[in-house]
Every structure is written in C-alpha cells, then in structure tokens.
Design a protein that fits this description.
The protein is built from 13 helices and 16 strands. By secondary structure, the chain is of the alpha+beta class. It binds aspartyl-adenosine-5'-monophosphate. The site of aspartyl-adenosine-5'-monophosphate (AMO) has 22 residues, from strand 11, strand 15, strand 16 and helix 13.
C-alpha cells in the first residue's frame, strides 16, 4: 500500500531489523531534547517511535517537534527490540511525513479512560470510534453480520433486498413516515413483512438485513426511528420451526465471535455463556407469574416495560414468550386453532424484546377478517393479498432488531451505542 507496509499491531520483536512504513495518528509526543518519543496508533495498536540525536536525521526530529494529537503521519523506520517500551519494540525513524494536521485541542477527548457524554460522542462519532472500546462495538456488529450471512447461506436461504419506498403499511397504519414522491405521498417501510411473505412462493427461504423506519414518538433507550432489522421467512415452516432457526443462529453467532479473543472479551458474560435450549414460557404462564408477583396484568394486554422488568425475577438472559393473544399481534400472525391465542413468539433478552415472529396466516379470507377487525381496509392491501389466491404455502418467519441484539450481546444500556449514526426524534445529524 502507498502509505503503509504493515499495520502497527504487526510490529513485533520478531520483526526487529526490518525497515517498514507505518501510518496512523499521533497519540502523544514527548520531547526530551536529545531524545524524542512519538506514540503512533492505528486501529490495531500503537507503537513508540524513538528519535535519537546523532543517530537519526535532524529534520525528522524537527517534524516530531511540530506534531500534536491526532495529526496523521506516515513513518519510515527500522524496527528495534526495546527493553523500555511496553510492547518490547520501538521504531527508529528515518523519515516522518505529515499526511494531515488535526486541530488542537480536538473537540472531543479521545482518551479511552476519559468519560464523555453520549450526546457529545454521537456529535463526533468518528472521533468516538478512535477509542478501542467503542470501535469494538462495530467490529462485533460487522462480525455478527458476517456470521449471520454464513449461517443462512449454509442453510440454503437466499438473501433478498426489498423496497423501502412503499404504498401500503406493513405493520399497521400507525407509525408510518410519509415522504413526497413526485406528485404523491408514499411511505417508508416499517419492515419487509409483506414482501418477505410473498417471496416464499418462489424462493422458499429468504433473509434480509436492512434499515427500516418507524415514526414512533418514543424517547427511550431501546427505540429508534431508523433501525436495522434481520428478517427471515420460510415456506412450509411454522412458529416452532423458526424459533429453532433463531436459537441455532444465536448459538452460531456466539461461537463465531468467541473465535476472536479480542471480540470475545467485549461480549457480555451472559451472551458468551448462552447455550441451547433457550427456555420457552407461554404468555399465559408469564401473566400468571406476574400477577403472583403483585403485578396487575389482564390476559390480552401487551406486557409493559415494568412487567418485563418484573419477569427478571423468574426468567433471566435469553428466553421466548410464546402464544400471545390475538389482540397483541399484527394481522398476518396465525391463530392457534379456534382459540384466542396466536402461533407467535417474542424472543427476549432480560427485559429487552429482541425479536418477534410466528406462523403466518395463509388464508386470504382470514387475513381480510383480521384486517377489518384491526380497523384496516383490505382493499389497501390488494397488491399483497392477490398472491394468497395463487399458491401461497404455509409459512413462518421473524424479524430481529439487530441493534437490540448487539445491546444484548455486549451488555449495552442504550440502543444509540449500537448504531453508528442514530436517528431519533431529536437527532438527525451527523
Ligand atoms: P416487530 O414490530 O416486533 O415485528 O419488530 C421486530 C423487532 O424489531 C425491533 N424493533 C425496533 N428496534 C429499534 N427501534 C424500534 N423503533 C424498533 N421497532 C422494532 C425489535 C423487534 O422485536 N414484521 C414483524 C416481524 C415478523 O413477524 O417477522 C415486525 O416487524 O427488536
């Protein structure tokens, strides 16, 4: 590469005697006159560059004298063993090129041990990512995506990309963002729900990783207005089948990330320890247990965040809540028999809902009835419903909040930590 011959993390005592070109950011400069120390870092580590009067060029020493934190440099030098530097190695510089200057002081302190408020960190996200603990979150994010893709490709799923510009609601009428589209108003997709269901006709097993939009006026640590979702849909499968797929995927992600010791260290203990089978509780059991613990939950109502916190007294870590009442689930979820419960599940991590899914209703008349019962007009869904009379197989699937999964994996307390550039009611920059 033009600016570097190796990553700084690769500089080791074994490479002593080699002349290399390194590139990175200035962490620290110490000028003791006859000897000057320059600490240079990249994402893989940092190394001490030691300039000694007499054995190094005068002009190189002068360049070091002009440097400040985060100036971008390229250093050509010889790697030497060292008994004093932390890594047992240092670089004796031949040339130092300043590739760019940073203003000083920086608008945000990037030292790992300085605590900075989340708002400032988000205002300066690229600087925030110069801290290893914050960068690690997105390295885990990236590795998780890679593990997920590997997992689904190995099982014969096709990765699909569905539209974000849509004309009909996917998750019900509320919480839709409207946007101008030439001379009419359209919506931003809340999920790929309707498309992924249609796609099981041709592709049978599909998954999609994408960004979706919900105009929810929440100001919470687990909701955003733009979030990443991992969705699957499987033909000839039911709720139980897709729960098994989810469980297997969680275990596969955990073991894949644990193969990289640096990333494994940043995983929450509970996530590293996760092993199958993940406990399953029926909604009714949870409601009864909550009422025994002094809460007042009626069968048929959704579980509030207070209820879910209370659930921690008898269910920790990862667990499923299944068989939700019809009133709590969207129109596309299938009824279990003739009763008032559905073939559905939520996958929880502590009090956090990470994923929800279930068997889908494939009978057009039943879907229409459910749409009407939810106050929606089936005619609006004609573009979707028309396929249910063309050979729609029984199918099931789920949608998983990818940023929430990361919260669970890394023990993060705010979803904004798990999104590079969060979009909430108040933040649309940077
Ligand atoms: P649901 O609406 O439950 O189901 O969403 C699925 C998962 O997406 C995540 N999620 C969010 N994450 C951050 N901010 C938000 N505002 C937000 N809204 C949802 C959650 C949630 O569990 N189509 C169905 C899924 C399916 O049945 O396949 C759906 O969207 O982690």
């Amino acid at each position: 590469m033009k600016y570097k011959s190796m990553d700084i993390g690769q500089v080791s005592p074994e490479a002593a005697g080699r002349k290399e070109r390194l590139a990175g950011w200035v962490d620290e400069v110490r000028d003791l006159g006859k000897i000057k120390f320059l600490l240079v870092r990249d994402r893989t580590g940092s190394v001490q560059v030691t300039w000694k009067k007499g054995s190094c060029e005068e002009s190189t020493g002068e360049v070091i004298g002009t440097l400040h934190q985060n100036d971008v440099v390229s250093v050509v030098g010889t790697i030497e063993r060292s008994t004093v530097s932390k890594r047992g190695v240092e670089v004796l510089p031949e040339q130092i090129h300043v590739l760019n200057r940073a203003k000083h002081p920086l608008p945000m302190d990037i030292a790992e041990d300085i605590s900075t408020g989340l708002d400032v960190r988000l205002d300066y996200r690229p600087l925030d990512l110069m801290r290893p603990s914050k960068r690690r979150i997105f390295e885990v994010f990236s590795e998780t995506i890679s593990a997920v893709r590997g997992f689904f490709h190995a099982r014969g799923f096709a990765e699909v990309v569905t539209p974000r510009i849509i004309s009909a609601a996917t998750e019900g009428g509320a919480n839709l963002f409207n946007v101008r589209y030439f001379d009419r108003t359209v919506n931003l997709a809340q999920s790929p729900q309707l498309y992924k269901e249609q796609l099981v006709m041709g592709l049978e097993k599909v998954f999609e990783l994408g960004t979706y939009f919900r105009a929810e006026p929440f100001d919470s640590t687990r909701h955003l207005n733009e979030f990443v979702s991992l969705d699957i849909e499987v033909a000839f499968a039911d709720c139980g089948d897709v729960m098994v797929i989810l469980q297997d995927m969680i275990l596969a992600i955990s073991s894949e990330i644990c193969r990289n010791s640096q990333l494994a260290d940043s995983l929450a203990q509970e996530f590293r320890k996760v092993s199958g089978p993940i406990p399953v509780y029926k909604y009714e059991e949870v409601v009864n247990a909550l009422n025994e613990h002094g809460m007042k939950v009626n069968f048929g109502s959704d579980l509030s965040s207070e209820d879910l916190k209370k659930v921690q007294q008898f269910a920790e870590g990862a667990y499923f809540i299944t068989d939700w009442p019809t009133s709590t689930k969207p129109f596309y979820i299938k009824q279990r028999g003739e009763g008032d419960v559905t073939e559905s599940f939520d996958f929880m991590w502590g009090p956090l809902e990470v994923c929800s899914g279930g068997s889908r209703e494939e009978n057009r008349d039943k879907i229409e009835k459910k749409l009407l019962a939810s106050g929606m007009n089936p005619a609006t869904f004609e573009e979707h419903l028309k396929f249910f009379a063309c050979g729609m197989p029984p199918h099931a699937g789920w949608g998983l909040g990818f940023n929430r999964l990361l919260m669970a994996m890394m023990g993060l307390s705010n979803i904004r930590e798990a999104v590079l550039y969060p979009r909430d009611r108040f933040r649309i920059t940077p």
